[in-house]
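protien #1 (seq + structre)
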Amino acid sequence: MNSSNHPSPTRTERTNPTVPFAYPFPDNPLASALAVSDELSAALALHGIILPSLGPELASCTTSTVHRPLLELGRVNLSTAHRLTTVLTDAADARKAAAARPYTGEDNRTDSGTNR
């Protein structure tokens, strides 16, 4: 199943834990699990991390009248676990540093090649 035709989460949905998660395909728990699995796999790949066993946990997607789909993350070697730990720690440190900076009301991004 190609899950690329579901809407990607917005930046707010990705970074704000108070925004409730909505299944990409509310009436199809397996499709939702596949879509979220694809998103997680792509996000991890940006950091050079591959979880070979990542995918839907089929029983949770198909056997219950109350669907609570789960993902299998699988086993990883120590090198992959270390890389994953480094990425998560670096992201947490960056988030803490950003929260500690005083808000100046200015956008810190640079417009390369643009004159104002």
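ok now protien #2
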Amino acid sequence: MVEDVLDTDEVIVVADIEAGTEEVTTSPAASSPSTPSSNTHTASSPSITNSPESYEGPVRFRSIADIYANTEEVVGIDEEENEVMLMMSEEPTCYQEAATEACCSTGRINKFKQQMMTEFEMSDLGLLSYYLGIEVEQQKSRILLRQSTYAKKILSQFKMADCNATKHPMEPKTQLHKDLEGTPVDATEYRRVIGCLRYLLHTRPDLSYPVGMASRYMERPTTMHHKVVKQILRYLKGTIHFGLAYIKGPPEISIFGYSDSDLAGDLDGRKSTSGMAFYFNESLVSWNSQKQKTVALSSCEAEFMAATTAACYALWLRSLTSELTGEKPKPVTLFVDNKSAIALMKNPVFHGRSKHIDTRFHFIRECVEKGQIVVEFVNTGEQRADVLTKALPEVKLATMRQLLGIRDLESCQE
């Protein structure tokens, strides 16, 4: 986890791996801005001629750790040294292009490299600074993640490099719809822009809602939707060096999340948009902005369904943390800004206000009853998931960026 990997300067290494004698062909570099330059540590995407089922790379790779976490197979546990390591690959099923490891000590990293070299033909590329378009800056007490180079390529490709910057990606109270009477724009170009912007969401949670909204109209985009996309690009121009800062935290582990929802923000189907954000010791580790699958009849109901979705992810984080630390799972605190929804979550009795809600959404009641999740009220002004459910005005957006851990990394000095 974040607090562990920051115990040493040499915490993350990247290595190129050739997968033995398996036949591997490398596909040509794509023209997308996400294609890394030739001087980076990231290899191009591979094309495997053999099926993953018959490929022995994962089996050989898995033998390096003693135990793998049940909740996440890329997390290995070294029983002898009582350490945890995170192993990632560009091809998760084959592990043969670029592998990255993060763990607690330099000694474990060196041991990992030696083990890998006995199984694969491997070259050590040193401390990780670039991975799949994400720039990584490792400092003594924090790790910074951003996609500034990728963002510049997006602006250049879509001829917005010299555009005027704006301070918010979507005008507050913007109401998008299918616009059946509107003038269509080039759908192929629109989808290309959206595809590029969606990849930015790995380090830019403040873009999750506007990009998600624009993504709903890729079938027949019009000038209305194109105008929103251009504003997102203009906002990107003014925040090109923004990214996430992960600060070294205290030894005690704290996991908490925020859940929020609008009401019937989708004008075509009248469905609501859920937002959730989870933190590990004040560092944002996961977020989501997504249209709900069912129409909610009230804000209470919309918040109730959003919280249930967040509860599922909270349980996964809870189990993973327990496996990594060996400690008994602790309750995850979930902050919600709707008191009526909280009352529904804490009341195990079905009544008139909730009996029509799909059974699966009552899962959160069981989690609360068992003590796995603790639901707490938070004022709307402090609801960190608010930016994931609606377009915010400039001042509030800036506040939410700070709460999410988004910083201007160009001017952010340690």
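The CA atoms of residues 271 and 378 lie 24 Å apart.
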